[in-house]
Amino acid sequence: MLQKDLAQKEQEVRDEIVDVDIVERPAMVSVSEARSTTDASLLRIDLPQKQRNQTNKWIVLVLSASATFMTTLDGSIVNIGLPSIARTFHAGVSGATEWTIIGYLVVIAAALLTFGRLADMLGRKPIFLSGLVIFAAGSILCGLAPSLVLLILARIFQGIGGALIFSVNIAMITSTFPTNQRGLALGLNAVTVSLGVAAGPTIGGIITQYLTWHWIFYVNVPISILVLLASIYFYHEQRPQGRQHERFDPLGAVVLAIGMASLTLGLSFGQEWGWFSAATLCALGIGIGMLGIAVYVESHVERPILNLSLVRNRTFALANISFMLCMMALFAPGFLLPFYFEQLRGFSTIHTGLLMTPLPLALAVAAPLSGSLADRLGSRWISPIGLAIACLGLFLLSQINTQSSTWDIIWRLAVTGFGQGLFQSPNTRTMMGAAPRSAQGEASGLLATGRVIGQSMSVALTGTVFAALGGAAAGTLLSSPQTQNMVSTNLIALQATFVNSFHLALLVCAVFAALGIFTALARGDV
Question: Is residue 22 part of a domain?
Fold first, then answer.
């Protein structure tokens, strides 16, 4: 173990030396200096590389943010299009149709860490370009799918492309921007995420109402092609020197993939299958067991898929836990609010989509502001303050009822989104900054994995609370034609059941945010 740790430290030092040479070495090198330098090949690439770093960092941000926007938009649009897909293939929205979403998430969770490791070995550019090609091809196959089974298989294939993109998009930014601009860049990237989330429901509603669900997937293709061509031409990256010949860890990749896929599957279907059913317990048991085995395997491999030193890094680990708690707290409102708007209030799909936009728009305003502040003041206090505001927003949101006005809903959503925006950019800056340059791909993969697991747990836990208290059943009855002939007392009782279930589910989210405040504070002064 000591020899392994020394080898890792030696590689990190070599990477840092290369990075200092690229960024710090002056552009003009005298002939005498050049002759006295033993590494002539390094000198030959210093000037062009420095110029590229200076000229293309904003282009790299645009490329990464565009891919992020596309994948985020895809996720939010597909959720809106599920009922139309179910009608086309004469299937229920639950059950087989849900696999168009679950299959996509499972393959992303399974592959993220492996692709992050490959990015550290081969470079981020080939991983990013491969992701764009596969994502575009998968989108075309999804749109052309003649059956539900083929659609699910196409979504799984598309998920491979999504995992390739997610595994490197943050690392592309943090490895290109200097420390004093990293928070701002991450904040601007968060803006595109917010715009994708905000635009998805509205665009999805328009597409499903005036076109067919096939266009939900075709809309990704031109974006993918444009980003792909721009990346080939503009994105220049120094390949990791000497790392292409490092040994890959196939056993660790397989064990981690099975563990993450099983855990995500169990969390996603736990409520539908029953939390104590054999299928759920088996999936969760396999997931936890394989992840435990993965820790043992990775601790005995010289070049593991999962760098356990990252997990043992206090700052990195607590920042990732804070991010997972943030996802657990703030992903659920996007899952629960459509039921509130459509089943309890009777709003249309397009109206619902518009009312969902205040939260991501407020996040888009706060994220670059908090990132810029973190570059100047550090992330120590900004992240916990942001989660505290988000926690307050979730509490305020849990108080809306059947009579709440549109404005009353909008300002509560805006408070929640503003708090989330204040938290995310500084926290991501801290997390990626705690990882060595040689492990930026792994760090980006762990960040994305935390997002997927946090979102899965958010839907699983809040959905269970909402259903267990009768909110799901009450919502189904409220949106059915039976309510027209229902006695007013029964109607009021159903509404009360829905509202109480909705309130408690959001209060659970607020608890997750409150826990995140303490983990953000505990990570230290950074």
Answer: no
Which of 20-24, 123-127, 423-427 shows the lowest per-residue confidence on average (mean pLDDT)? 20-24
What's the per-residue H, E or C state across 82-139? HHHHHHHCCCCCCHHHHHHHHHHHHHHHHHHHHHHHHHHHHCHHHHHHHHHHHHHHHH
Mean pLDDT of 5-34: 43
Lowest mean pLDDT across 150-159, 184-193, 384-393? 184-193
Instruction: Indicate the DSSP class of residue 485.
Output: G
Pair 272, 199 in one domain: no
Q: Are residues 267 and 392 in the same domain?
A: no
User: What is the model's pTM?
Assistant: 0.74
Q: Do 317 and 296 fall within a single domain?
A: no
CA neighbor of 264 nearest in space, from 107, 380, 371, 388: 107
Own/partner pairs for 214-218, CB < 8 Å, 24+ apart?
Answer: 214/143, 214/144, 215/143, 216/74, 216/77, 216/78, 216/80, 216/81, 216/143, 217/74, 217/78, 217/139, 217/140, 217/142, 217/143, 218/139, 218/140, 218/143
End position of a domain, from candidates 236, 268, 288: 236
Q: What is the mean pLDDT of residues 85-104?
A: 71
State the total domains in the chain: 3
Residue pair 446/310 in contact by the 8 Å Cβ criterion:
yes
DSSP designation for 366: H
